[in-house]
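Case study.
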Amino acid sequence: MAVKTLIEAIRDAMDEEMERDPSVFVIGEDVGVRGGVFLATDGLANKYGEDRVIDSPLAESSIVGVAIGAAANGMRPIAEIQFADFIGPAYNQIVQEAARFCYRSAGDFCLPMVIRAPWGGGVHGAIYHSQSIEATFGHVPGLKVVVPGTPADAKGLLKAAIRDPDPVLFLEHKRTYRLIRGEVPDGDHLVAIGTAEVRREGKDLSLIAYGLMLHYCLEAAEKLAGEGVSVEVLDLRSIKPMDDAAILKTTRKTGKVLIVHEDNQFGGIAGEVMAIIMESAFDALDAPVMRLCGPDVPAMPYNHVLEAAFMPSVDRIAEKARELAAY
Amino acid sequence: MATKTQELTQKGGQHRHRALGLSDEAALRIYEVMRLARAIDERMWLINRQGRAPFVISCQGQEAAQVGSAAALEPKKDWVVPYYRDAGVALWFGMTARDEMLQFLARKEDPNSAGRQMPRHYGSRERHILTTGSPVGAQLLHAAGIALASKMRGEDAVTATYFGEGSSSQGDAHEAMNFAAIHKLAVLFICENNGYAISVPQNHQMAIKDLADRAAGYGFPGVVVDGNDVLAVYEAAHEAVKRARRGEGPTLIEAKTYRITAHSSDDDDKRYRQAEEVALWREKEPIPRFAQYLRQARVLSEELDREISDRVNREVDDATDYAESAPDPSPDDLLKHVYAQESR
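After joint prediction, the assembly is written out as follows.
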């Protein structure tokens, strides 16, 4: 067991899978000698050569479209979109092509490919380097969407995504890259896609989150513990497929649920989690299900006051949790 | 500027096909597949007009561009990434008349999509035909990806992708040619320039006369070929395949041809083009033209032509009967194959 940052865990996962399987390769902007703008692929070009760590032209549709063709012809590409905010030009390739290949060919052309994308705010990234895209792509059948929050999960889920027979959108919260350190099991560590994980046991209310917000929720839970409120924290870590059973289990346990995400509220993941609870655990509720989300403005502004006003914070989560606890 | 090959291949005179390395049998096979593609297409329109099928998208007029280029490839070794008119390509790569009718009538047994897609959205791993969608242009990047995989494994397989001149306006077309050029990928970009993108004529699609001129901007050869001359198309494709197998990279082939039918069974082409124009092109149709050549070359006798007609008609009849009595998918099939794992 070694302590790693989240980005080190991601790099290790790619390194180990490239070592293990010659069909795995990386393609993206600046992933070669530069090692990626966040250094996620640092050293890989040196180790595996430019033929397996391909600096793509500055064209996201190419990155995904080429990865699709390669995956259809026996390879396992890891396509890197430099920032989730830049995924737009590849939307058609991801949604109309990658996500539909298996279905439209009745299982003949399923695509083992990963699209990695740094997402999320709190890094002074402004409107185009802070966005959340999990609801947009979580809506699309045929895709899997994964959002690890810890180094162990980042490694285990990425290795699982690379071995998965379907396209996986792998979202890495960029603020957690170096902020979050944690123990990563040695050896061939895999985490099953589609499973949530309870990060803190509690009995009075449940916080459900993922990515950076998971860590803010854990801090808020600690605060509330000092005030005598016992908070359970569930890390969704997989948006699609979603672990309904884990959501219902914590709901039945505490009877009070607050969902937290940075993504815009309208049509967001919180709404889907609420619907799952309302359909199957309405009888277990002691309070309305609540959500704390990014506001419905186009994206996170650059100015620090506006950025802070956008992001759910530990204090705001704690405040909302107190409101729920008191209900 | 692009190479023009219209007149280039007159060598060989009455035996051009032999000069190109095609045996009489091979030339006749090309002819028969063109005939079969046309006969299936005509049957589809009949069935559609009788109200027994909702939609036709046609290959008529483009058979030479399709079969002539596919014939330069090696089925099962090479890959094709077609678009929704490419009946000739699909037949050359192993689809049968029955497969055509099964997909046309969206039966469960349709090898392309088990009845999920509109007609002529081909795809079959076994036959090395990549699955194709309706948003045009995206497939060019897939061809680059397939070729990248071949290159990474050290294989000399070639990937041919097909598109219309309308699709060439899509950003993905540019991106794919650029990417394939950078990595010297074994890709044939085959544009079936049929003059119209539904109703929009070429001069509203681009300001240049020859789309193949664009290849120069990417750093690989562009070739303009008479798309209604099947041997000219074969020659251009054959050269491009040899180049690609040598590791010298992609070629853009612009096969100038004409869409004889409306865009689809839901289109009314009288709204945007003159009947006289269509009539003019009907005289230049690729199948009668190749038949005439084959007769002059004494490869095709009247008797043999009748045999071929009979065989093609029987195949189309059989395929129609077979597909019409084949079962639809069941409602349970709706939820299958969203993800891998479930077997077919």
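Observations recorded in class. Chain B touches chain A through 46 residues (CB under 8 Å). The mean pLDDT of chain B is 96. We will return to this complex in the next lecture.
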